[in-house]
Specification:
Strand order of the largest sheet: 10-9-8-11-12
CATH architecture of the largest domain: 2-Layer Sandwich
Shape: globular
Number of helices: 11
Distance between the termini: 27 Å
Helix content: 25-40%
Order of helices and strands: EHEHEHHHEHEEHEEEHEHEEHH
Strand content: 15-25%
Radius of gyration: 19 Å
Largest sheet: 5 strands, antiparallel
Oligomer: single chain
């Protein structure tokens, strides 16, 4: 008998539209693989979610992104109900979503991270926390939501900070020159490394999700030793947080003369996008794993172990 899969998508984070796209694509792949699929558009109505999960599905495909769907909140509901679900568990999801905490875990694991501080909007309004250029980002958002690169002689960002709406804390990091790399991890295997070349000034929300917003170079055209080192960092980061299923590690490769070819781990995404322009499916295709096969593997490896 075909398994019944509830695909959860939407949510209430700024990444809602991305999640809806991910959910629809994954649902189609699951139907093509013979699963019975129920699409559930999630909002902040817990009784409605309980009703939507009745009758209880065999598993949940969690296509939610951002706050509420990626930070351990909805995962704890799945745990209470005892329904297997895709992607990482409660603890790994919470650790990865809070960037300063994840950075501390990575540092303890001996992984290369970027220097930075946690600050309040009031602190930033009073003065530059680091010498420019530096990066200002929310502590708990994904998809580059709220990310701002502050360059020399740029004071326009202060007005943005005054209108900050992404929480009481911000993460400020030294800007690393160089190239944008990402590593897809599937289970206990690092699949490959992709270089992202944004069409704009940096890899922001538009570059990630708009058609033609960036070019994905797979495999990343970097020296073999750098490629292998990036794979190692991605897999070690996945393990350090206790991730399961599929994750994606974002890195910077400073290939400038001053950078001497160093790699830096920026963050791990426990619920990477699964849209037509997403990175993990691109990398998986390069190693011979089609989109339907990838989605089915995620479903078959759903778990309920925290």
């Amino acid at each position: 008998m075909a398994k019944t899969v509830a695909v959860l998508m939407g949510g209430w984070s700024p990444e809602r539209d991305v999640s809806l796209s991910s959910g629809r694509e994954c649902a189609k792949a699951l139907v093509d693989r013979g699963y019975k699929v129920r699409l559930i558009d999630v909002d902040r109505d817990l009784p409605a979610l309980m009703r939507a999960l009745d009758p209880r599905p065999d598993l949940i495909f969690n296509a939610l992104h951002g706050i509420g769907g990626e930070d351990g909140t909805v995962q704890s509901i799945f745990e209470m109900l005892g329904i297997p679900y895709t992607h990482s568990g409660v603890l790994a999801s919470g650790l990865a979503m809070h960037k300063p905490t994840a950075k501390a875990v990575f540092r303890d694991a001996g992984l290369p991270v970027v220097d930075g501080i946690v600050a309040s909007p009031e602190m930033l309004a009073a003065g530059d926390p680091l010498p420019a250029p530096f990066v200002v980002k929310p502590t708990n958002q994904g998809s580059s939501v709220g990310v701002r690169i502050v360059r020399m002689n740029d004071n326009s960002w202060r007005e943005e900070v005054r209108e900050w709406r992404y929480g009481a804390e911000l993460l400020v990091e030294r800007f690393v020159h160089g190239r944008e790399l990402t590593v897809a991890v599937m289970g206990d295997r690092a699949l490959g490394v992709c270089e992202i070349v944004p069409r704009g000034s940096f890899y922001d929300y538009t570059a990630k999700y708009a058609a033609g917003g960036s070019d994905h170079l797979t495999p990343a055209p970097v020296p073999p030793a750098v490629y292998e080192a990036a794979l190692d960092i991605g897999l070690r980061a996945h393990r350090a947080l206790g991730c399961r299923g599929v994750s994606r590690a974002d890195l910077r490769y400073d290939d400038t003369l001053a950078g001497c070819g160093r790699l830096y781990l920026l963050e791990v995404n426990t619920q990477p996008g699964m849209t037509p322009t997403s990175l993990v499916p691109d990398i998986a295709r390069h190693v011979g794993i089609g989109f339907d096969e990838l989605v089915a593997w995620m479903a078959e490896n759903a778990s309920c172990d925290g």
